[in-house]
Each structure stands twice: as C-alpha cells, then as structure tokens.
Input
Amino acid sequence: MEKLDQSVYSPSPTPEVPRNELWRMFDRIAQRYDLLNRLLSFGQDVVWRKKLARFLPEGECLEVLDLATGTADVIIYLFQKSARVFRAVGIDLAERMLEIGQQKIREHQLDQVVELKVGDATRIPFPDNQFHVVTIAFGIRNVENVPQSLREMYRVLKPGGRALVLEFSLPRSPIVRNAYLFYFRNILPRIGGWISGDHYAYQYLNKTVESFPYGESFAQLMTEAGFSRVGYKSLTFGVATIYYGDKLM
Output
C-alpha cells in the first residue's frame, strides 16, 4: 500500500459544515449519538472499543487520556475491562457531548476517578510526560492536523507509555469493501440523518472514512510522530483498525 505523502491530513471543509462548525455538528447529534453508534454498527462499536483494553501497556495504576472522548464510552469500557486503569481524563471540543458523557460517568460511579473537560487534540492542555496511555476512538479523522495531534499524543505520554488509535478503515476484500461502501454511501446516511435529524453529519462520516489513510499509511504517520514498535490490528474484516505505538524515551 502506498504511504500517505501529504504533510498534513485534514478532512475537506464543505459549504454545509465549515471547519469552525464541525464541533457544533457533533453537539447537534449528541443526544442520539450513542444510540446511532449501536444501531449503525450493529453493536460492533462497543466490541471495538472494549478491545482497546487488550492493548494497554504493562504496569499498574495506569493514567489514561482519551482524546475526542465524546460521550466517554472508551473511558467507561477501559475501567470495566481492566482493573489496572487508575485514573482517566477525557477531552473534547463538543460541549454537549461532554455533558452527556459526564452523566454516564456519574451513572457508572466513576466521577471520583474521571475528569472530562473541553480540549483540543491538536493542542493538548497538559504538560509533557503526563499519561501512561493516550487513546482516541473514531476521532482522529476529525482533527484539523493529524500529524500535529499524533505529536501531541507522543508529547504527553510518559516514557514507556502507549498511544492507541481506533478508527474506521477500508476492508481489503473487494467483496466486503463493496458491500461496506454501499452501506456507508447509501444506507447509513439515510438512517443516521432520519434518527438524528442532521442528514449531513452522516454524509460527512462517509466522506471522511473513504478519504482517511489506513493500515500502513496511518502506521507511517505514527512512526513519523516519534512512536516506536508501531503496529495495528484489523477488526471485523477490516472495517475498523486499532493502531498502537510506544514512547520509549
């Protein structure tokens, strides 16, 4: 597979959703975001997020930073799947998503060990060498500057820490890929738009998934950001992928 040759990846702004309106779009669909994730992925999004716990680095009392945390699903599942997670912080630019996430954190009785705050994945508001783990699930496509965000993830990791990125990808099998793209282009936008009331939000999803680098191309971006021992694991016939990379020094 050819490596991405752009120095900066960014989803193309459109007249319907300019760059500075992107996070407002997520706020508009926040109330039904979790429901739509479950329906449109046939429940697989829960399976994929829970699998992130298998890639946690060694060690106890892990401190986690979750970027583009949304409604805090990743944080909740990490606490459920691993007793080694000690504390977590989630940041996102969509305030309504964070409000819903905070409600869920309280419901799971995690409010003493989890903090959610407004923050930008390209300008992470924490000092160097702060966290054992940095995660981002289905959010790296939406940041303004992917290489910068990856460098920021590297910066705030402690030596020996690990970055975990969960993102949509394109299946290698032509049969699976064609079926997947038909669903993404023709079915998902209609159902998502009907339930959420925001038709463009789910057309945007399709466009960014198809244009975003995946597999070796994305792994190369992580390597260029400074990560070592970079690898990735395809999930569900390649529909999604978990990428991982370590900060050795």
Q: What stands out?
A: The longest strand covers residues 157-168.
